[in-house]
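Translate sequence into structure tokens.
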Amino acid sequence: MTGYWLIFGLFMVLSLVVGAVLKSKFARYAKIPLGSTLSGKEVAERMLREHGVSGVQVVSVPGQLSDHYNPLTRTVNLSPDVYNGRNISAAAVAAHECGHAVQHATGYAWLNFRSKLVPVQNLSAKILNVIFIAMFLGVFAVMP
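Result follows.
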């Protein structure tokens, strides 16, 4: 049983570290304004236009760092800090997500592969959550 806790703990710590580093980098570069006055939304729209990508909408979605491109709805979904932001972080995240839209428009094979893996990843994450909870509760069931 110790091996399971070690693996669980390792992934938990690794997840927390990666999330903290990402948030820290975003916060650091969010303090640096762009040379232009463009918002993340405007950066995204300009990038799409300059790459000849049409039919993709740039929208604001709730959350923090919840940004993603949805090929099914053809939307670039930006969190409020990115959508409205006029800083390096907002521009970088908006450009990154638009990169996926450009890949989709050009038929980039690896994006199609990645898109097909998303449902598998979502399901496996839910299953792993159930397993981890069961492991946690199971420890209490076997303790004297």
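Note: The CA atoms of residues 56 and 74 lie 5 Å apart.
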